[in-house]
């Protein structure tokens, strides 16, 4: 099982979403920034995580994730 938390600061606290690309199958991104699950497919996956809040603050990160063993 994989678990990683993306972190962005802000008031009010930001929520997280996938803004582009594809998460590795078996992983999900929760609105609190936790990327978790059990990968089911090997390969390289590129996706963009967006953190935004109701005040209009936005931050993003592009992730290249390599799954070697599913």
Structural summary, described in words:
The chain has strands at about 1-5, 15-20, 25-30, 35, 45-50, 60-65. It has a three-stranded antiparallel sheet with strand order 1-4-3, with no helix packed on it. A hairpin with a 5-residue loop joins strand 5 and strand 6. It is mainly beta and about 70 residues long. It is built from no helices and six strands.
Brief overview, please?
The chain is an all-beta fold and 70 residues long. The protein has strands spanning 2-5, 15-21, 27-29, 34-37, 43-52, 58-67. It starts with a strand and ends with a strand.
Which labels suit this protein?
70 residues, mainly beta, 3-stranded antiparallel sheet, 0% helix
Main sheet strand line-up: 1-4-3
Structural class: mainly beta
* Record field, number of beta strands: 6
Poorly predicted sequence stretches spanning 5 or more consecutive residues:
none
| Main sheet overview | 3 strands, antiparallel
Shape: elongated
Rg (C-alpha, Å): 13 Å
Assembly context of the chains: single chain
Percentage of residues in strands: over 45%
């Amino acid at each position: 099982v994989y678990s990683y938390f993306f972190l962005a600061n802000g008031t009010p606290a930001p929520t997280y979403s996938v803004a582009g690309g594809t998460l590795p199958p078996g992983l999900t991104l929760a609105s609190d920034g936790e990327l978790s699950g059990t990968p089911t497919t090997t390969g390289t996956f590129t996706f963009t995580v967006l953190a935004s809040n109701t005040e209009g603050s936005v931050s993003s990160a592009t992730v290249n994730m390599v799954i070697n063993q599913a």
